[in-house]
Amino acid sequence: MARLIPSVLSLVFALASLTLWAADPSTQAPETSPQPTPADSQASAPIQPKRTSNYLPANEIKQITIDNQPLELLVRSWEGRKKLGAAIILPATNGTADAPGLMAFVRRNINAAGWASLSLTPPTEPPAPNFATPATEVTTAGSAQLTSPSNKPSQKVKPEDSNKHLIEQEDFLVKSMSQLDSVGADFPGKRVLITADQSAGLLISLLSQKKIADPDVLIVINPYSEDETRNQAIAEKLAKLTMPILDIQSPDGHPASLETAAQRKTLAVTLETPNYRQTTLVLNLDNESAWQNCLTAIRGFAARMSGAH
């Protein structure tokens, strides 16, 4: 019993000391202010325009604003003694102002021929629809028949939705082109408009409707529209334009462009379109020598037909 009493007293003193230490404010963890949530951070931070060409020199990158959205306009000045004017470059839809391939090659290399290059951000395409079929329905017979011809690709969107988006794309391009005057004022002279694929189809439509100013020279590469009616109308619209036109068709171009190539040439000859020329060039994405051939054709045609020497 005598041995037990000291042990009990030691335990009591230890518990009392522990209680006093916990109550001491100096031993408690300091209060911290609540950390801002991601939503709070996004609300307080200003929205910065998205820059997709960080690898380019800062002096090449200008900005225009379409419907409150900042977009890149890439500008390269002319090189050497010649100062003929500006080449306005519109890459294929769904790309960027410096989309890799032929158009970026032309943008960087036409300057030595005396042309400044103004490369626009092209309009976007609607997202492709995603049709999912439940596993239990895979073997179930359908209740409707296919209405699309067997030799034509299925439509991605409804005709009314497709037409609405095409109008939006045209409106986007009209607003973009209207903002080039201030930037292009630094490069007086002739204007050459160079465009490809669906962007070419859109610009041909706008030029035929007189919604944008005629360039001194028009260069179209594999022009087409995924809308069947509009695609068939490209040949007639192109043939009725009055400016000099270089129509470059690649054997590996989009099937819709290949479909109208012969008609584009035939109508231009029939309607005696002045200064229309169609040429065939292989433009494989991995064939830079073909890009050089294309650039040579563009440079020669632009200088000769614009009267700029």
UniProtKB/TrEMBL annotation:
Decide whether keyword Metal-binding is in the record.
no
Name the UniProt key words of this record, in alphabetical order: Signal
Where does the secretion signal sit in this chain? 1-22
Q: Which domain of life is it from?
A: Bacteria
Q: Polar residues bias: where?
A: 136-154
InterPro entries with a match to the protein in the record: DUF3530
Chain segments carrying region Disordered: 26-54, 123-162
Q: What is this protein called?
A: DUF3530 domain-containing protein
- Where does this protein come from, organism-wise? Shewanella oneidensis (strain ATCC 700550 / JCM 31522 / CIP 106686 / LMG 19005 / NCIMB 14063 / MR-1)
